[in-house]
Amino acid sequence: MYRGDPNDKERISIPMETAKIFQSGRSQAVRLPKEFRFQGKEVLISHFADGVLLLPIDKSWATLEAALEEFEPEFKLEREQPEAEKREAIAS
User: Name one GO molecular function term (predicted).
Assistant: First the structure.
């Protein structure tokens, strides 16, 4: 996996591991490698781009904040928006 612009020649390679997918009853499950195990019985789950994001329930905000630290210093979390246009009300 690469971070940044896919056309950038100086891409940063992020090492990836693989996990096995299998059926458990009528559900799909993923067998996580030992180093990716979670504490507890449940995780938060969400669609993220073309994948799935899993976060520990007990410290999901800490995990998210730590992930945000991985962005380049120039990355802006808030966009600079122009002022909203003043428009006439729509007649009813």
Answer: DNA binding
pLDDT (tens, 9 = 90+) of the chain, 92 residues, equals 445 555 665 666 677 889 999 999 999 999 999 999 998 899 989 898 888 888 888 876 787 778 777 777 777 667 778 888 888 888 76
Nearest-angstrom CA–CA distance, 59 and 86: 42
State residue 39 phi and psi, 5-degree precision: -85, 150
Q: pTM of the full predicted structure?
A: 0.49
Say which amino acid occupies 85: E
Angstrom distances, CA of residue 70 to CA of 4, 18, 35: 12, 21, 20
